[in-house]
Amino acid sequence: MRIIVANDYDEMSRKAAHLIASQMILNPESVLGLATGSTPIGTYKELIKLYKDGVIDFSKIKSFNLDEYFELPKDNPQSYDYFMKANLFNHVNIGEEDINIPNGMCENIERECNDYEKKIIEAGGIDLQLLGIGRNSHIGFNEPGEHFETNTHLVQLDEDTIEANSRFFDSVDDVPTKAISMGIGSIMKAKKILLLASGAGKADAIYDTVNGPITPKVPASILQLHPDVVIIVDKEAASRL
Ligand code: F6R
Q1: How many structural domains are present in the chain?
Q2: Which residue of 17, 53, 186, 214 pairs with 46 in a disulfide if CB–CB is 3.0 to 4.6 A?
Q3: pLDDT (tens digit, 9 = 90+) per residue, 27-85?
Q4: Residues with Cβ within 6 A of ligand 1?
Q5: What is the DSSP string of 23-73?
């Protein structure tokens, strides 16, 4: 694991965007794994700037998002589909057919999950997976548990995650309790992983990810076994390292 400590959120975002941009320049047909939440918003802003400055081109890029809320329509402003359009896709030249996000409104959950895994394989696998991390150390929506879920699956969200994500909703009761998420196995198959964390609220999760035992109780700890992980954290998230 390579750990880069940035002074603040903006520096973390710039460094992350530059790493993603390098991947896109080296391979303009890259398959990117993308995340939602507060953490990558600054990174996406920087990527949009780099695109507008002619440094990067999304025309041959394919993307796969980590997760989507279950039974939340795409046009709901809290859906991850809506988030990705608002924060990145509507501002760059990625083809609509190259965007992949689990369909939270699917009729057959098993088929949706299997098809999502198949599509990733058919695209040649993920070249660079961007991750945030939950306060409870979840990656994607792989919550702490007794075992690592391998493939894309339906998740029952933890109380802590529902509470953390309620900041985006009118009330905690509006937060969906389930989501479709890529599994730990799907994430670990990515050729490179870039994990971002910002703020004191993530300091324990980052400490346990880097130093703790590898256990499904700390889902991100599995990243210790991946051969190519870069973690970019701001000073506050690095405060226990
Ligand atoms: C989002 C995702 C989650 C978030 C995590 C941190 O697609 O998979 O694992 O990365 O919950 O969220 P923020 O960045 O809002 O603190």
Answers
A1: 1
A2: 17
A3: 999 999 999 999 999 999 999 999 999 999 999 999 999 999 999 999 999 999 999 99
A4: 35-39, 66-67, 132-134, 138-141
A5: HHHH-TTPEEEE--SSTTHHHHHHHHHHHHTTS---TT-EEEESEEETT--
